[in-house]
Task: inverse folding
């Protein structure tokens, strides 16, 4: 991708981050309860939106960094970028839920960590296979035309 294309991909996330942070700052310094019946909920909603805007911006920025780092080599798999984006959005979701529930972020992250640990044990084989596929895609230990020999199991040519 060209630098112009990357710049276009960063326009909307940047605009949303600036807008939400400006709204949060405005609502923080203004007595919004005179204008809106439930100003606290509005403040929480805008803050939650800011979390998601920052996650969107960070995922696009990280994709840009990964694409620029691999300009001279083979590109990173799209799955890796998507997994990183999912993790950023999950953190934004956990922070927003903690914000609306009035809990501290540590309690929410600890609770979500327990859920993730249980899910991790349940789907560990799928996760292991996915991460192995990402590692093979990133490292590229063999190419089309190479011969592969798995001792005692199989031998073949990569097509």
Result:
């Amino acid at each position: 991708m060209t630098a112009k294309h990357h710049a276009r991909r960063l326009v909307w996330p940047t605009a949303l981050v600036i807008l939400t942070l400006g709204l949060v700052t405005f609502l923080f310094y203004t007595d919004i309860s005179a204008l809106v019946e439930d100003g606290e909920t509005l403040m929480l909603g805008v803050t939650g939106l800011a979390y998601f805007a920052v996650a969107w911006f960070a995922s696009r920025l990280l994709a840009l960094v990964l694409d620029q780092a691999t300009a001279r080599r083979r590109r990173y798999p799209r799955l890796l970028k998507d997994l990183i984006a999912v993790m950023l959005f999950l953190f934004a979701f956990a922070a927003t839920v903690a914000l609306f529930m009035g809990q501290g972020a540590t309690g929410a992250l600890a609770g979500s960590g327990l859920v993730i640990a249980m899910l991790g044990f349940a789907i560990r084989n799928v996760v292991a296979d996915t991460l192995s596929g990402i590692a093979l895609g990133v490292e590229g230990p063999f190419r089309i035309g190479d011969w592969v020999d798995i001792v005692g199991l199989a031998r073949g040519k990569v097509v």
Q: What stands out?
A: The longest strand covers residues 147-150. The beta strands are 147-150, 154-157. The mean pLDDT is 81. The CA atoms of residues 14 and 69 lie 22 Å apart.
